[in-house]
Amino acid sequence: MKDQNKQPIGIICLGNDITENKKYFANIQQQEYMLSAIYQSTSEASTFVDKDLIIRYNNQVAKQITKQVFGKEAETGDNLLDYFLPEYQTEFREIFEKH
Question: Considering the entire predicted model, what is its pTM?
C-alpha cells in the first residue's frame, strides 16, 4: 500500500491453506504408484488409449512386444494404429469406434 505521495505505508498479504490440496495430490500419486506397480508386475501386455487411439499408458511387456514386432517401443503419445499391421488398421478402428 502507498500513501498520497506514493510512499510505502504497508503491505497486503493474501494466502491460501493448501494442506487439503497436498493431501489430495499425495493420495492420487500413491494410487498411481500402486496401479503402475500392478501393471508393471504382470506378464501380460497392457496398453491404455484415449478416444483418439493415442497411447496414454503401456507397461514394459507391451513395449517389449512392439519393439520385437515393429522395431521400436510404443511410447506414451504414440498413435496405437502405428503398431497395427496396415491390413488390420481399418477393421480395428471400426470396431473401436463402435464401442
Answer: 0.66
